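Pasting two entries for a bug report.
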Amino acid sequence: HVQLVESGGGSVQVGGSLRLSCAASVDTSSHVFIGWFRQAPGKEREGVATIRTDGTTIYEDSVKGRFTISQNTAKNTLYLQMNSLEPEDTAMYYCAAARTVYAGDVLGKNQYEYWGQGTQVTVS
């Protein structure tokens, strides 16, 4: 059973930065993709960024150039560096892992089997 625990959320002003962390109970490279999702009140959960075992990264269009996903495989930890934060980035952020992913939907939430409990990010 995979456990994912997020941390690093908080409240920040517009234009500010936060770094989220996700500690995994297993080797993060054991999953094809591990990534970040977010869900704002009243909205669907959406993929933000994901990273493949070979280091390939994929980003949702609205965060390109502002967010950076990375992982420390030695520590089994995933990160999301978020810069130039906007009010629209306010959401609960989740870490998720997938063993297999359809190539045409790598940021699709239904592709991911394991989820953390989330960490809140508020931008105002």
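Entry 2 (this is the one that rendered wrong in the viewer):
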Amino acid sequence: QVQLVESGGGLVQGGGSTRLSCAASGDTVCISAMGWYRQAPGKERELVASITSEWRTKYADSVKGRFTISRDLAKNTLYLQMNSLKPDDTAVYYCNADSQSTLRVPWCEDMDYWGKGTLVTVAS
């Protein structure tokens, strides 16, 4: 099993910056890709950014050029640097980890893990 704990949310002024962190624990060797999702009030959860074990990144069009996802394997921590924040970025941000069973780690389960989320509120 993998446990994920997000931190770094809060109130930010429009145009400002903040960084989210997601600390992973447990069977972290099982983790392949990781990502950040967000869910705004009344909207569905959407992918914000993801990063694979080969360091390939993917971003939602709405955050390209403003957000940067990174991962520190030594600290088992995922980050999301958020710059030029807009009120539309207000949402609960969730950390996601994709666990996969491979030849290297055959005991791992094929499943997704989620953190409980951290609220980011961007004031206009």
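Dev reply: Rendering is fixed now. As a check, the viewer should reflect this: The chain has no helices and eleven strands.
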